[in-house]
Specification:
Blueprint lengths: L24 H34 L8 H22 L70 E3 L4 E3 L15 H12 L5 H9 L7 H26 L4 E13 L4 E12 L9 E6 L4 H7 L4 E5 L17 E5 L2 H12 L5 H19 L5 H11 L1 H16 L6 H11 L1 H4 L13 H17 L5 H19 L4 H11 L22
Protein backbone atom coordinates (compact mmCIF):
# COMPACT_ATOMS: atom_id res chain seq x y z
CA UNK A 1 0.00 0.00 0.00
CA UNK A 2 1.39 3.41 -0.95
CA UNK A 3 1.15 6.71 0.94
CA UNK A 4 -2.30 7.38 -0.51
CA UNK A 5 -3.70 4.13 0.83
CA UNK A 6 -3.80 2.44 -2.56
CA UNK A 7 -2.50 -1.01 -3.13
CA UNK A 8 0.30 -1.23 -5.64
CA UNK A 9 0.61 -4.58 -7.34
CA UNK A 10 4.15 -5.80 -7.87
CA UNK A 11 5.36 -6.08 -11.41
CA UNK A 12 5.08 -9.56 -12.82
CA UNK A 13 8.23 -11.53 -12.71
CA UNK A 14 10.29 -11.27 -15.90
CA UNK A 15 8.35 -8.19 -17.15
CA UNK A 16 10.48 -5.36 -15.65
CA UNK A 17 10.45 -2.01 -17.68
CA UNK A 18 13.70 -1.32 -19.51
CA UNK A 19 15.68 1.63 -18.17
CA UNK A 20 15.34 4.87 -20.30
CA UNK A 21 18.11 5.54 -22.80
CA UNK A 22 20.19 8.48 -21.63
CA UNK A 23 22.20 10.60 -24.14
CA UNK A 24 25.90 10.41 -23.89
CA UNK A 25 27.67 13.31 -22.13
CA UNK A 26 29.20 14.46 -25.42
CA UNK A 27 25.82 14.58 -27.18
CA UNK A 28 24.29 16.53 -24.30
CA UNK A 29 27.15 19.02 -24.29
CA UNK A 30 26.80 19.54 -28.06
CA UNK A 31 23.04 20.08 -27.73
CA UNK A 32 23.40 22.61 -24.95
CA UNK A 33 26.18 24.42 -26.81
CA UNK A 34 23.94 24.74 -29.85
CA UNK A 35 21.15 26.20 -27.72
CA UNK A 36 23.57 28.69 -26.18
CA UNK A 37 24.89 29.76 -29.58
CA UNK A 38 21.35 30.28 -30.89
CA UNK A 39 20.41 32.29 -27.83
CA UNK A 40 23.55 34.42 -28.10
CA UNK A 41 22.70 35.29 -31.70
CA UNK A 42 19.14 36.24 -30.72
CA UNK A 43 20.34 38.27 -27.73
CA UNK A 44 22.80 40.25 -29.87
CA UNK A 45 20.11 40.85 -32.46
CA UNK A 46 17.69 42.06 -29.81
CA UNK A 47 20.32 44.34 -28.26
CA UNK A 48 20.90 45.99 -31.63
CA UNK A 49 17.18 46.22 -32.22
CA UNK A 50 16.54 47.91 -28.87
CA UNK A 51 19.42 50.36 -29.41
CA UNK A 52 18.08 51.26 -32.84
CA UNK A 53 14.53 51.76 -31.58
CA UNK A 54 15.73 53.89 -28.67
CA UNK A 55 17.67 56.11 -31.05
CA UNK A 56 14.62 56.50 -33.28
CA UNK A 57 12.20 57.00 -30.38
CA UNK A 58 14.20 59.27 -28.12
CA UNK A 59 16.65 60.80 -30.57
CA UNK A 60 13.92 62.90 -32.18
CA UNK A 61 14.17 65.52 -29.46
CA UNK A 62 17.94 65.72 -29.15
CA UNK A 63 20.08 63.67 -31.50
CA UNK A 64 18.17 62.98 -34.71
CA UNK A 65 18.74 66.34 -36.37
CA UNK A 66 19.06 66.93 -40.08
CA UNK A 67 22.31 68.30 -41.50
CA UNK A 68 20.69 71.72 -41.88
CA UNK A 69 19.51 71.71 -38.25
CA UNK A 70 22.97 70.72 -37.01
CA UNK A 71 24.45 73.61 -39.00
CA UNK A 72 22.18 76.03 -37.15
CA UNK A 73 23.65 74.94 -33.82
CA UNK A 74 27.20 74.88 -35.20
CA UNK A 75 26.76 78.44 -36.48
CA UNK A 76 25.64 79.53 -33.02
CA UNK A 77 28.69 77.92 -31.40
CA UNK A 78 31.06 79.65 -33.84
CA UNK A 79 29.30 82.95 -33.14
CA UNK A 80 29.61 82.45 -29.38
CA UNK A 81 33.33 81.73 -29.64
CA UNK A 82 33.86 84.85 -31.74
CA UNK A 83 31.91 86.97 -29.25
CA UNK A 84 33.98 85.70 -26.31
CA UNK A 85 37.22 86.33 -28.21
CA UNK A 86 36.09 89.88 -28.92
CA UNK A 87 35.13 90.43 -25.28
CA UNK A 88 38.53 89.16 -24.10
CA UNK A 89 40.31 90.98 -26.96
CA UNK A 90 41.90 87.75 -28.11
CA UNK A 91 42.98 87.09 -31.70
CA UNK A 92 40.68 84.60 -33.42
CA UNK A 93 42.04 81.07 -33.18
CA UNK A 94 41.19 78.77 -36.11
CA UNK A 95 39.70 75.46 -35.02
CA UNK A 96 41.56 73.59 -37.73
CA UNK A 97 44.98 74.22 -39.24
CA UNK A 98 44.83 76.35 -42.39
CA UNK A 99 46.73 75.19 -45.41
CA UNK A 100 46.09 78.24 -47.58
CA UNK A 101 48.12 81.42 -47.32
CA UNK A 102 46.34 84.77 -47.15
CA UNK A 103 42.67 85.59 -47.36
CA UNK A 104 40.38 84.02 -49.92
CA UNK A 105 40.02 86.23 -53.00
CA UNK A 106 36.63 87.81 -53.51
CA UNK A 107 34.69 86.81 -56.67
CA UNK A 108 35.95 88.61 -59.77
CA UNK A 109 32.48 89.08 -61.27
CA UNK A 110 31.34 91.41 -58.50
CA UNK A 111 31.21 95.15 -59.13
CA UNK A 112 34.15 97.09 -57.63
CA UNK A 113 33.38 100.41 -55.96
CA UNK A 114 36.65 102.28 -55.40
CA UNK A 115 37.08 104.47 -52.33
CA UNK A 116 40.37 106.39 -52.35
CA UNK A 117 41.91 107.39 -49.03
CA UNK A 118 44.46 110.19 -49.51
CA UNK A 119 46.66 111.37 -46.65
CA UNK A 120 45.64 114.62 -44.96
CA UNK A 121 48.73 116.39 -46.32
CA UNK A 122 50.92 115.83 -49.39
CA UNK A 123 54.03 117.21 -47.67
CA UNK A 124 56.47 115.40 -45.45
CA UNK A 125 55.72 115.91 -41.77
CA UNK A 126 59.49 115.96 -41.00
CA UNK A 127 61.01 118.25 -43.65
CA UNK A 128 57.92 119.70 -45.37
CA UNK A 129 59.08 118.42 -48.81
CA UNK A 130 56.47 117.32 -51.35
CA UNK A 131 55.55 113.63 -51.19
CA UNK A 132 55.98 111.44 -54.30
CA UNK A 133 53.62 108.53 -54.98
CA UNK A 134 55.55 105.25 -55.06
CA UNK A 135 52.70 102.71 -55.04
CA UNK A 136 49.32 101.74 -53.63
CA UNK A 137 48.07 99.47 -50.88
CA UNK A 138 44.82 97.86 -52.03
CA UNK A 139 42.50 95.90 -49.74
CA UNK A 140 38.99 94.66 -50.46
CA UNK A 141 35.88 94.17 -48.32
CA UNK A 142 32.67 92.43 -49.28
CA UNK A 143 29.55 94.57 -48.89
CA UNK A 144 25.88 94.20 -49.78
CA UNK A 145 22.98 96.49 -50.55
CA UNK A 146 19.73 95.03 -49.18
CA UNK A 147 16.65 94.77 -51.35
CA UNK A 148 16.23 98.27 -52.75
CA UNK A 149 12.84 99.28 -54.03
CA UNK A 150 12.70 101.91 -56.74
CA UNK A 151 10.16 103.16 -59.27
CA UNK A 152 10.58 102.91 -63.03
CA UNK A 153 8.83 105.78 -64.81
CA UNK A 154 7.82 104.88 -68.35
CA UNK A 155 7.50 108.13 -70.30
CA UNK A 156 6.03 107.96 -73.79
CA UNK A 157 6.01 111.34 -75.50
CA UNK A 158 3.05 111.94 -77.77
CA UNK A 159 3.58 113.59 -81.16
CA UNK A 160 0.85 115.07 -83.31
CA UNK A 161 0.71 115.69 -87.05
CA UNK A 162 -0.84 119.08 -87.75
CA UNK A 163 -1.59 118.19 -91.32
CA UNK A 164 -3.58 114.94 -90.79
CA UNK A 165 -4.37 115.49 -87.13
CA UNK A 166 -3.05 112.16 -85.88
CA UNK A 167 -1.23 111.41 -82.64
CA UNK A 168 1.78 109.07 -82.47
CA UNK A 169 3.33 107.51 -79.35
CA UNK A 170 5.39 104.46 -78.52
CA UNK A 171 3.17 101.44 -77.77
CA UNK A 172 2.91 100.00 -74.29
CA UNK A 173 5.14 96.94 -74.07
CA UNK A 174 3.30 93.66 -73.32
CA UNK A 175 3.76 92.32 -69.81
CA UNK A 176 3.21 89.02 -68.06
CA UNK A 177 0.65 90.78 -65.85
CA UNK A 178 -1.05 93.55 -67.82
CA UNK A 179 -1.58 96.78 -65.90
CA UNK A 180 0.33 95.54 -62.86
CA UNK A 181 2.50 97.87 -60.79
CA UNK A 182 5.09 95.06 -60.46
CA UNK A 183 8.05 95.14 -62.83
CA UNK A 184 9.71 91.83 -63.82
CA UNK A 185 12.45 92.39 -61.24
CA UNK A 186 9.92 92.67 -58.40
CA UNK A 187 8.03 89.61 -59.60
CA UNK A 188 11.28 87.65 -59.69
CA UNK A 189 12.13 88.85 -56.17
CA UNK A 190 8.78 87.66 -54.80
CA UNK A 191 9.02 84.26 -56.51
CA UNK A 192 12.62 83.75 -55.36
CA UNK A 193 11.76 84.67 -51.79
CA UNK A 194 8.82 82.28 -51.70
CA UNK A 195 10.21 79.27 -53.56
CA UNK A 196 14.00 79.46 -53.11
CA UNK A 197 14.43 81.24 -49.78
CA UNK A 198 11.21 79.65 -48.47
CA UNK A 199 9.91 82.90 -47.00
CA UNK A 200 6.14 83.08 -46.44
CA UNK A 201 4.53 86.03 -48.16
CA UNK A 202 3.83 87.76 -44.86
CA UNK A 203 7.60 87.93 -44.27
CA UNK A 204 8.13 89.49 -47.69
CA UNK A 205 5.38 91.92 -46.75
CA UNK A 206 7.33 92.84 -43.60
CA UNK A 207 10.60 93.25 -45.54
CA UNK A 208 8.92 95.70 -47.91
CA UNK A 209 7.28 97.54 -45.02
CA UNK A 210 10.70 98.34 -43.53
CA UNK A 211 11.26 100.52 -46.60
CA UNK A 212 7.77 101.98 -46.35
CA UNK A 213 6.52 100.00 -49.35
CA UNK A 214 3.06 98.45 -49.06
CA UNK A 215 3.01 94.97 -50.62
CA UNK A 216 -0.01 93.06 -49.41
CA UNK A 217 0.01 89.29 -49.27
CA UNK A 218 -3.12 89.10 -51.38
CA UNK A 219 -1.49 91.15 -54.13
CA UNK A 220 1.67 89.03 -54.09
CA UNK A 221 -0.45 85.86 -54.11
CA UNK A 222 -2.15 87.10 -57.27
CA UNK A 223 1.23 87.78 -58.86
CA UNK A 224 2.40 84.26 -57.99
CA UNK A 225 -0.73 82.76 -59.55
CA UNK A 226 -0.32 84.68 -62.81
CA UNK A 227 3.41 83.95 -62.96
CA UNK A 228 2.76 80.26 -62.44
CA UNK A 229 0.30 80.23 -65.33
CA UNK A 230 2.77 82.05 -67.60
CA UNK A 231 5.67 79.75 -66.67
CA UNK A 232 3.74 76.47 -66.94
CA UNK A 233 4.60 75.93 -70.66
CA UNK A 234 8.31 76.09 -69.76
CA UNK A 235 7.84 73.50 -67.01
CA UNK A 236 5.89 71.28 -69.41
CA UNK A 237 8.69 71.55 -71.95
CA UNK A 238 11.24 70.60 -69.28
CA UNK A 239 9.20 67.47 -68.57
CA UNK A 240 9.17 66.55 -72.27
CA UNK A 241 12.94 66.99 -72.52
CA UNK A 242 13.51 64.98 -69.35
CA UNK A 243 11.53 62.03 -70.71
CA UNK A 244 13.82 61.96 -73.75
CA UNK A 245 16.65 60.76 -71.49
CA UNK A 246 17.41 57.05 -71.15
CA UNK A 247 18.31 57.05 -67.44
CA UNK A 248 16.31 58.80 -64.71
CA UNK A 249 16.22 59.10 -60.93
CA UNK A 250 12.92 59.18 -59.02
CA UNK A 251 11.94 59.89 -55.42
CA UNK A 252 9.04 61.37 -53.47
CA UNK A 253 8.58 63.40 -50.30
CA UNK A 254 5.42 64.16 -48.30
CA UNK A 255 4.05 67.69 -48.03
CA UNK A 256 1.00 69.04 -46.22
CA UNK A 257 -1.96 70.41 -48.11
CA UNK A 258 -4.73 72.46 -46.55
CA UNK A 259 -8.06 70.64 -46.38
CA UNK A 260 -10.61 73.46 -45.86
CA UNK A 261 -13.55 71.11 -45.50
CA UNK A 262 -11.95 69.29 -42.57
CA UNK A 263 -10.37 72.38 -41.05
CA UNK A 264 -6.92 70.79 -41.02
CA UNK A 265 -4.20 69.57 -43.39
CA UNK A 266 -3.89 66.33 -45.30
CA UNK A 267 -0.85 64.62 -46.74
CA UNK A 268 0.14 65.12 -50.38
CA UNK A 269 3.37 64.20 -52.17
CA UNK A 270 5.95 65.90 -54.30
CA UNK A 271 7.38 63.39 -56.80
CA UNK A 272 10.83 64.20 -58.15
CA UNK A 273 12.45 63.08 -61.39
CA UNK A 274 16.02 63.93 -62.34
CA UNK A 275 18.34 63.25 -65.24
CA UNK A 276 21.47 61.15 -64.89
CA UNK A 277 24.77 62.96 -64.34
CA UNK A 278 26.42 60.81 -67.01
CA UNK A 279 24.08 62.15 -69.70
CA UNK A 280 25.63 64.37 -72.35
CA UNK A 281 22.79 66.90 -72.15
CA UNK A 282 22.29 69.58 -69.50
CA UNK A 283 20.92 68.36 -66.14
CA UNK A 284 17.17 68.59 -65.59
CA UNK A 285 14.97 68.06 -62.54
CA UNK A 286 11.17 68.06 -62.62
CA UNK A 287 8.77 68.01 -59.66
CA UNK A 288 5.28 66.56 -59.93
CA UNK A 289 2.77 67.47 -57.20
CA UNK A 290 0.17 64.79 -56.50
CA UNK A 291 -2.45 64.18 -53.84
CA UNK A 292 -1.13 60.79 -52.73
CA UNK A 293 1.78 58.35 -52.82
CA UNK A 294 0.04 55.96 -55.16
CA UNK A 295 2.40 54.37 -57.67
CA UNK A 296 -0.15 55.25 -60.36
CA UNK A 297 1.22 58.81 -60.33
CA UNK A 298 4.68 57.57 -61.32
CA UNK A 299 3.17 55.38 -64.02
CA UNK A 300 1.17 58.31 -65.38
CA UNK A 301 4.22 60.59 -65.42
CA UNK A 302 6.41 58.00 -67.19
CA UNK A 303 3.67 56.71 -69.51
CA UNK A 304 5.30 55.44 -72.70
CA UNK A 305 8.83 56.10 -71.42
CA UNK A 306 11.60 53.54 -71.98
CA UNK A 307 14.79 53.45 -70.00
CA UNK A 308 16.46 52.68 -66.65
CA UNK A 309 14.96 54.12 -63.47
CA UNK A 310 16.91 54.54 -60.21
CA UNK A 311 14.58 54.27 -57.20
CA UNK A 312 14.46 53.06 -53.61
CA UNK A 313 12.50 49.97 -52.57
CA UNK A 314 9.12 51.72 -52.34
CA UNK A 315 6.45 49.35 -53.66
CA UNK A 316 4.73 52.05 -55.67
CA UNK A 317 7.38 51.74 -58.38
CA UNK A 318 7.14 47.96 -58.71
CA UNK A 319 4.44 47.89 -61.38
CA UNK A 320 6.66 50.00 -63.61
CA UNK A 321 9.05 47.07 -63.82
CA UNK A 322 6.39 44.44 -64.58
CA UNK A 323 6.53 42.66 -67.93
CA UNK A 324 3.07 43.91 -68.90
CA UNK A 325 3.71 47.52 -67.93
CA UNK A 326 2.94 50.27 -70.44
CA UNK A 327 6.49 51.54 -69.88
CA UNK A 328 9.55 49.44 -70.68
CA UNK A 329 11.44 50.35 -67.52
CA UNK A 330 14.51 48.66 -66.05
CA UNK A 331 14.96 48.90 -62.29
CA UNK A 332 18.19 50.24 -60.81
CA UNK A 333 18.88 49.62 -57.11
CA UNK A 334 20.31 52.32 -54.85
CA UNK A 335 23.46 51.44 -52.94
CA UNK A 336 23.03 54.44 -50.66
CA UNK A 337 19.80 52.90 -49.32
CA UNK A 338 21.44 49.49 -48.94
CA UNK A 339 24.34 51.07 -47.09
CA UNK A 340 21.97 52.98 -44.81
CA UNK A 341 20.55 49.72 -43.44
CA UNK A 342 23.99 48.65 -42.19
CA UNK A 343 24.88 52.14 -41.05
CA UNK A 344 21.83 52.23 -38.77
CA UNK A 345 23.22 49.14 -37.03
CA UNK A 346 26.78 50.41 -36.80
CA UNK A 347 25.86 53.85 -35.47
CA UNK A 348 24.22 52.28 -32.41
CA UNK A 349 27.46 50.66 -31.30
CA UNK A 350 30.19 48.28 -32.37
CA UNK A 351 28.73 45.84 -34.86
CA UNK A 352 31.44 43.84 -36.65
CA UNK A 353 29.16 42.46 -39.37
CA UNK A 354 27.71 45.88 -40.20
CA UNK A 355 31.19 47.40 -40.13
CA UNK A 356 32.42 44.80 -42.59
CA UNK A 357 29.45 45.46 -44.89
CA UNK A 358 30.21 49.19 -44.80
CA UNK A 359 33.84 48.51 -45.62
CA UNK A 360 32.89 46.46 -48.68
CA UNK A 361 30.38 49.05 -49.88
CA UNK A 362 33.08 51.69 -49.34
CA UNK A 363 35.20 49.88 -51.94
CA UNK A 364 32.39 50.29 -54.48
CA UNK A 365 32.22 54.02 -53.86
CA UNK A 366 36.00 54.35 -53.98
CA UNK A 367 35.92 52.77 -57.43
CA UNK A 368 33.22 55.24 -58.49
CA UNK A 369 35.21 58.20 -57.21
CA UNK A 370 38.25 57.07 -59.20
CA UNK A 371 36.12 56.82 -62.36
CA UNK A 372 34.24 60.08 -61.88
CA UNK A 373 35.96 61.95 -64.71
CA UNK A 374 36.12 58.99 -67.10
CA UNK A 375 34.11 58.58 -70.29
CA UNK A 376 31.42 55.90 -70.29
CA UNK A 377 33.57 53.36 -72.13
CA UNK A 378 36.52 53.78 -69.77
CA UNK A 379 34.22 53.75 -66.73
CA UNK A 380 32.64 50.47 -67.88
CA UNK A 381 36.07 48.85 -68.08
CA UNK A 382 37.05 50.33 -64.71
CA UNK A 383 33.91 48.92 -63.08
CA UNK A 384 34.51 45.52 -64.62
CA UNK A 385 38.00 45.42 -63.14
CA UNK A 386 37.33 46.98 -59.72
CA UNK A 387 33.61 46.78 -58.87
CA UNK A 388 32.43 43.46 -60.30
CA UNK A 389 34.88 41.33 -58.23
CA UNK A 390 33.92 43.21 -55.06
CA UNK A 391 30.23 42.64 -55.76
CA UNK A 392 30.70 38.92 -56.43
CA UNK A 393 32.67 38.44 -53.22
CA UNK A 394 30.16 40.49 -51.26
CA UNK A 395 27.24 38.42 -52.53
CA UNK A 396 28.85 35.19 -51.29
CA UNK A 397 29.67 36.80 -47.96
CA UNK A 398 26.10 38.06 -47.44
CA UNK A 399 24.63 34.63 -48.18
CA UNK A 400 26.94 32.94 -45.67
CA UNK A 401 26.26 35.62 -43.08
CA UNK A 402 22.51 35.31 -43.51
CA UNK A 403 22.62 31.60 -42.61
CA UNK A 404 23.93 32.43 -39.14
CA UNK A 405 21.72 35.49 -38.55
CA UNK A 406 18.52 35.33 -36.51
CA UNK A 407 15.34 36.00 -38.48
CA UNK A 408 13.72 39.33 -37.74
CA UNK A 409 16.87 40.99 -36.45
CA UNK A 410 18.14 44.29 -37.76
CA UNK A 411 21.09 42.58 -39.43
CA UNK A 412 18.78 40.09 -41.12
CA UNK A 413 16.64 42.89 -42.54
CA UNK A 414 19.71 44.73 -43.81
CA UNK A 415 21.02 41.59 -45.51
CA UNK A 416 17.62 40.71 -46.96
CA UNK A 417 17.23 44.23 -48.39
CA UNK A 418 20.43 43.81 -50.38
CA UNK A 419 19.94 40.18 -51.42
CA UNK A 420 16.33 40.69 -52.49
CA UNK A 421 17.37 43.59 -54.75
CA UNK A 422 20.71 42.17 -55.81
CA UNK A 423 19.93 42.03 -59.53
CA UNK A 424 19.03 45.72 -59.58
CA UNK A 425 21.92 46.70 -57.28
CA UNK A 426 24.63 45.22 -59.49
CA UNK A 427 23.14 46.41 -62.79
CA UNK A 428 25.12 49.67 -62.73
CA UNK A 429 28.45 47.80 -62.67
CA UNK A 430 27.66 46.11 -65.97
CA UNK A 431 27.71 49.44 -67.82
CA UNK A 432 29.57 52.73 -67.83
CA UNK A 433 26.67 55.18 -67.73
CA UNK A 434 24.29 53.93 -65.03
CA UNK A 435 24.43 55.55 -61.56
CA UNK A 436 25.34 53.72 -58.35
CA UNK A 437 22.75 55.42 -56.14
CA UNK A 438 19.82 57.81 -55.97
CA UNK A 439 21.67 60.65 -54.23
CA UNK A 440 21.34 63.16 -57.11
CA UNK A 441 17.55 63.33 -56.89
CA UNK A 442 17.64 63.29 -53.07
CA UNK A 443 20.00 66.28 -53.19
CA UNK A 444 17.60 68.07 -55.53
CA UNK A 445 14.62 67.49 -53.26
CA UNK A 446 16.43 68.27 -49.98
CA UNK A 447 16.08 72.09 -50.16
CA UNK A 448 12.33 71.69 -50.59
CA UNK A 449 12.19 69.27 -47.67
CA UNK A 450 13.88 71.94 -45.54
CA UNK A 451 11.72 74.75 -46.90
CA UNK A 452 8.42 73.01 -46.23
CA UNK A 453 9.14 73.45 -42.51
CA UNK A 454 8.82 77.19 -43.14
CA UNK A 455 5.83 77.36 -45.44
CA UNK A 456 4.13 74.52 -43.51
CA UNK A 457 1.58 73.50 -46.16
CA UNK A 458 0.25 74.10 -49.66
CA UNK A 459 -3.01 76.00 -49.73
CA UNK A 460 -4.57 73.85 -52.44
CA UNK A 461 -3.76 71.22 -55.04
CA UNK A 462 -3.54 73.93 -57.70
CA UNK A 463 -1.07 75.85 -55.51
CA UNK A 464 0.97 72.69 -55.05
CA UNK A 465 1.16 72.07 -58.80
CA UNK A 466 2.09 75.71 -59.40
CA UNK A 467 4.86 75.44 -56.80
CA UNK A 468 6.12 72.23 -58.43
CA UNK A 469 6.35 73.94 -61.83
CA UNK A 470 8.25 76.97 -60.51
CA UNK A 471 10.49 74.78 -58.34
CA UNK A 472 11.32 72.66 -61.39
CA UNK A 473 12.57 75.73 -63.25
CA UNK A 474 14.51 77.10 -60.27
CA UNK A 475 16.11 73.74 -59.41
CA UNK A 476 17.11 73.14 -63.03
CA UNK A 477 18.64 76.62 -63.19
CA UNK A 478 20.77 75.88 -60.13
CA UNK A 479 21.90 72.53 -61.57
CA UNK A 480 23.05 74.38 -64.70
CA UNK A 481 24.94 77.07 -62.79
CA UNK A 482 22.43 79.79 -63.72
CA UNK A 483 21.42 82.43 -61.18
CA UNK A 484 17.67 81.78 -60.76
CA UNK A 485 16.53 85.35 -60.00
CA UNK A 486 18.38 86.84 -62.96
CA UNK A 487 17.04 84.10 -65.23
CA UNK A 488 13.46 84.62 -64.09
CA UNK A 489 13.63 88.41 -64.50
CA UNK A 490 15.01 88.03 -68.01
CA UNK A 491 12.41 85.39 -68.88
CA UNK A 492 9.47 87.44 -67.58
CA UNK A 493 10.61 90.34 -69.76
CA UNK A 494 10.80 88.19 -72.90
CA UNK A 495 7.89 85.80 -72.36
CA UNK A 496 4.97 88.06 -73.42
CA UNK A 497 6.27 88.41 -77.00
CA UNK A 498 8.04 85.02 -77.30
CA UNK A 499 6.87 82.37 -79.73
CA UNK A 500 6.36 78.75 -78.73
CA UNK A 501 8.67 77.62 -81.52
CA UNK A 502 11.59 79.20 -79.65
CA UNK A 503 10.54 78.19 -76.14
CA UNK A 504 13.68 76.09 -75.66
CA UNK A 505 15.74 79.28 -75.70
CA UNK A 506 14.01 80.46 -72.53
CA UNK A 507 14.67 77.29 -70.53
CA UNK A 508 17.29 77.55 -67.75
CA UNK A 509 19.70 75.15 -69.47
CA UNK A 510 23.36 75.64 -70.27
CA UNK A 511 22.89 75.27 -74.01
CA UNK A 512 19.88 77.59 -74.32
CA UNK A 513 20.18 80.19 -71.56
CA UNK A 514 20.42 83.72 -72.88
CA UNK A 515 20.78 85.76 -69.71
CA UNK A 516 21.33 89.51 -69.99
Amino acid sequence: MNSLGKTVSPAPAGKASPPPLLPSPDDEIARLAGIIRSQDVKIQALIQEVAYLRRIRYGVKSEAMSAEQRQLFEDDIVGDVAAVESELKLPPAPSTPRTRVGRQALPEHLERVEVRHEPESCTCSACQANLVKIGEDVSEQLDIEPARFFVIRHIRPQYACRQCETVTAAPVAPAVIDGSLAAPGLLAWVATGKYLDHLPLYRLEQIAARQQVALSRSTMSEWIGRMGFALQPLADRLMEMLKQRQVLHADETPVKQLDPGAGKTKRAYLWSYRSNDSDTGPPIVVFDYQSSRSGQHARDFLHGWRGSLMVDDYGGYKKLFAADALCAVTELGCWAHARRKFFDLQVNGAHPQAEEALRRIGKLYAAEEAARQMADTARALHRKQHSVPVLADMHDWLICLRLTTADGSGLARAIDYSLNRWASLIRYAQTGNLPIDNNPVENAIRPIALGKKNWLFAGSERAGKRAAAIQSLFATAKLNGIEPTAWLKDTLEKLPVWTMRRIDELLPLKSTAQIG
